[in-house]
Structures are given as structure tokens and as C-alpha cells.
Amino acid sequence: GSFPARYCTKDPVRDSFCLDNSYQAFLLVDDGSVGRRGGDMVFRTNLEEYISHQRTGMWGSGTIDIPVLCMLISGDTGMFERVDLSLKSSIPWLVLAGSGGLADFLTDLLESTSSASVLQSSSECDSEPGPSMDLKEKVAERVKKHFPAESENNKLVEQVGSVYLFLW
Description:
Helix 2 links the parallel strand 1 and strand 2. The chain has 168 residues and is mainly α. The protein has six helices and two strands. It is globular and about 50 Å long. Strands 1-2 form a two-stranded parallel sheet. About 5% of the residues have low confidence.
């Protein structure tokens, strides 16, 4: 935007965080919203997609595309949307099994299902191929197992169904 961001804190000592001095640069993104998480998701997805279409060499004259790989370590249910947006833009994810949260959930789901048994073929019904009822039941079961405190289980099942189709 055309204005500087100002962040006020009640307790500057307790509410302050240091940036890791191991890095040369930071890209800080603020969409202007207050009290809402995830405002950076669309920006990040668009930036990753833009970078993935660039080429190496002076002024992009090289023949090698710049690879982009997202990494999922743990993660909460809010990361479903982030993973889904990136996968729809063909940005791959490396999921670190055993790190907890969403990473363990996705690993568990992939290990417990097979593509042959959970996808409907278009000849079975008039709609587009998609998650079968068997998959939805397995996903719902695993959502309850990995995220027992979540109140919106049905919404999570639908989000996972969208992400799952990209994982195969």
C-alpha cells in the first residue's frame, strides 16, 4: 500500500520477536486486516507460482525453471486451504511425516487409502470423478482422530477431499 504499517503493542518486551539473523532478507506481508489469520495465503500462492515460472540466468535467459517446493512440518487445520491453493497452482509439497498435526494427518490418510478404492470412475455416475463415499468416511474418521477438538468436521472433510485428489 501507500502507507507505512504501524504495529502497537501493550508490552513491547513481551510482545516483541527477533528475526533470525541467519537470513539475508525477509519478505513481510500485511494485507491490512486486523485480528484475522491467513490474509497472506493468496499472496504467497501467487508469489510461489510466479517464481516457479521464472528461469535461471541473466534476465531469465537460462533454460532451467526455478523450482519451488513447499514444506509442511506439523501444521494446523488452517493449513488445508494453503496446501489446496498451492496444489491447484501445481506447486508441490514435501510433507514431513512424524512432525505432528496436518503433516501426520495427510501421511496417515495417504498410507491408509489407495487411489483405486476411493475414486469413482465417471462411468459409475453422471458427475465428474471425485471422492467416493468410502473416502469421505475414511477422511471423517481420521479428522476425528487427528483433530478431536475441531468443531467444523464436515468442512474439514470437504477440504481434505479437494486436497486428496491432487495428492494422487
